Amino acid sequence: MHDTALPPLSILDLAPIPEGADAAEALRRSLDLARHAEAWSYRRYWVAEHHNMDGLACSATAVVIAHLAAGTQRIRIGAGGVMLPNHAPLVVAEQFGTLATLHPGRIDLGLGRAPGTDRATMHALRRHLARESEDDFPNEVLELMAYLDDAAPGQPVRAIPGQGTRVPVWILGSSLYGAQLAAHLGLPFAFASHFAPDMLLHALQLYRDGFRPSRTHARPHAMVGVNVVCADDDAAAARLATSLQLRFLGMQRGQRGPLPKPIDPAELERLWTPQERAGVMRMLACSAVGSPDTVRRQLGEIVQRTGADELIVACGVHEHAARLRSYELLAALQAAGAAAEAPAA
Asked: What is the pLDDT along the chain (345 residues), one digit of tens a residue?
């Protein structure tokens, strides 16, 4: 049987704070992972925006991106993404325009429509703004892109730095809305199937069917979020993956906190109800867990189903060395597949 070659791989980092560590340690681990990712030839390293969430150190997304970009040399660093309802478009344009000025050709800007937090925190983030809904999202995307484009004659407000940098903009989504907007604007699209996979295939179909070529993209480009936990054997990977499963179980119970230490999978079976187990597995359906051979097969099935142009990989592993090892093994799989696909000399 011929294995499906893996598309280019990128990394999604939520800067998880592991149980027993703090935010400073989480951010040190993120920089270390970004440096390894660059050496392992990952295409991008994106940081997600979340607020008021115990266990995540990525609330000041642009600041974290600046830290990672300054500590690496070649890999693209970006936001996966900035939750635009939380910010004035001009401020985002200035932040990412500054990043692009400091690190030309290396910065990506993914934009999401959700607040990335609870309603009370959303009010705290934008307490002086009258708008209370997400209905203005398309207009705010266009406003932001205009700030990053060349200045129009007589334009009264400009992003400095930012104007003319043309930072690549992506639309992120976990529903059909983002897919339709990305298609309408002719932008690349990333689907958050690493935690919300239910509408993945429908969203990708809408995106590809409705895509309108733009100045920056002649054809659609779809990136699919996946969870990957890769270890030397299936049993080791299954144990490491319990950290992520415990975190999603906590989310179902309304409990937040640091990324839990792994436990024996048999112990996890005693902790959750059948309904809770089904809910966690539904949210984590777009995942690959196991040895390199198992992960290659599982990711190949995901690529065959989705036709993904790129995979962005989240790895909710508690131990830093094991997290690095997972990404290293995955990079080796991608490199082996690329070598096998290369034409003979």
From this structure: 346 689 999 999 999 999 999 999 999 999 999 999 999 999 999 999 988 888 999 999 999 999 999 999 999 999 999 999 889 999 999 999 999 999 999 999 999 998 656 667 767 776 455 554 557 899 999 999 999 999 888 899 999 999 999 999 999 999 999 999 999 999 999 999 999 999 999 999 999 999 999 999 999 999 999 999 999 999 999 999 999 999 999 999 998 889 999 999 999 999 999 999 999 999 999 999 999 999 999 999 999 999 999 999 999 999 999 999 999 999 999 888 776 776 654
Backbone angles phi, psi at 249, to 5 degrees: -65, -45
The model carries a pTM of: 0.93
Both tokens assigned to 211: 């895509």
Which residue, 324, 277, 315, is CA-closest to 194?
A: 315
In the chain, the largest separation of any two C-alpha atoms, in whole Å, equals: 66
The phi, psi pair for 33, rounded to 5°, reads -65, -40
- Between the alpha carbon of residue 205 and those of residues 200, 227, 278, the distances in Å are 9, 22, 26
